[in-house]
Design a protein that fits this description.
By secondary structure, the protein is mainly alpha-helical. Helix content is 67%, strand content 0%.
Length: 332
Amino acid sequence: MSTTDFGAFPAVTGGAYAAPATNEQTTPPERPPWSNVKAPDTRAQPNAAVAVTNRRRALKVFIANPNALFGTAFLALVIAVALLAPVLYPGDPLSMVGKPFLWPGQDPGFPLGTDSLGRDVLAGILHGSRISLFVGLMATALGLTFGVFVGAIAGYFSGWIDDLLVRLIEIFQTLPSFVLLVVLVAIVQPSATTVTLAIAVISWPTVARLTRAEFRAIREKDFVMAARSLGFGHGRIIVREILPNALPPIIVTSSVMVATAILMESALSFMGLGDPNVVSWGSMIGTGRELVRTAWYLTALPGLAIVFTVLALNLIGDGLNDALNPRFTQDR
C-alpha cells in the first residue's frame, strides 16, 4: 500500500473518533416557575430563627440581672395591690372611718394610721396606686402610639414630610413641658382622663425624635433595600421590616416614660390640679404637707410608694437596655 493511498483508513470525520451525527438539538430541562416572587420562603425562615435566638438571648440576659428582677417583682406587687384594692378595701378611701392622727401601729384596724380627717392611710395608698398606674400606663401608651407614628413617617419618607413633622416636634419641645402640662390641665376640668391626655401630649415628641433617628439609620440597610426591590409597599416595609428593628430603644424609653408620667401626675395632684373625686399618691402628699412636723408619716408613706415604684421602673428600663442593646448582647 502506498503512502498516498488513504482509502484503507477510516475517514476522520466519520470514524470511531468522530461524534455521532444527530439532527436533534440538546435543550436544557425546563425548570418550574418560582411562585414566591415577592416573598421567598428561603429568606423568612432564617430571619425567624435569628429572631427567636435573639429573644432567648435577651430574656436570658434580663433574667440574669438581679436589679431588673427586683424591679419586675416590685412592679408586679404594685399591680397586684392595685387590682386587689377594691377587694381589700371596698369602701370609699376618702371616707372618714376612724379617729384623726392615728399613728402607724397604734390601732390594729388601721395598720398605717389615719390622717387629719380620720381617713385610712393604707386604703388611700392602695387605691392611689390604681390612679397612678392608670395615668402612667395610659399616658405612655398614647404618647408612644402618636410618637412612633410621627417619627416613623418622618424618618422613612424624609423630604418635605420630614421637614414639616420635625417643625411640629420642635414647636412642642420649645415649650417647657411641666408649664405646658399645668396650662393644659388648668384650661379644662381636672380629671384622671384629662391629666392622662395632657401628659401624653407633652411626652410624644421625645418618642417621635427617637423613632425618627432609628428609622433614618435603618432605612438604608441592605434588607430594606432588598424589600424595596422585591416590590414591598411602604406600609409593609415600615411595619414589618424597619419597626421591629427600631423597637429595642423605644421599649427602653417606654419604661422611663411610665415613671415620668407617675411623677407628673403626683406633682399635679400635689398642686391641687388632680382629680378631686379620687385619691392618689400625689394628693395624699399634698394633703399632709402642712402637717410634716407633727404627722410626717402622712407624706412619707405615699412618698415612699412613689419612690419605690419609680425606682422599679428605672431598674426595669436598665435591664431592658442591657438585654436589648446590640452592643451589650454581642459582647456576651
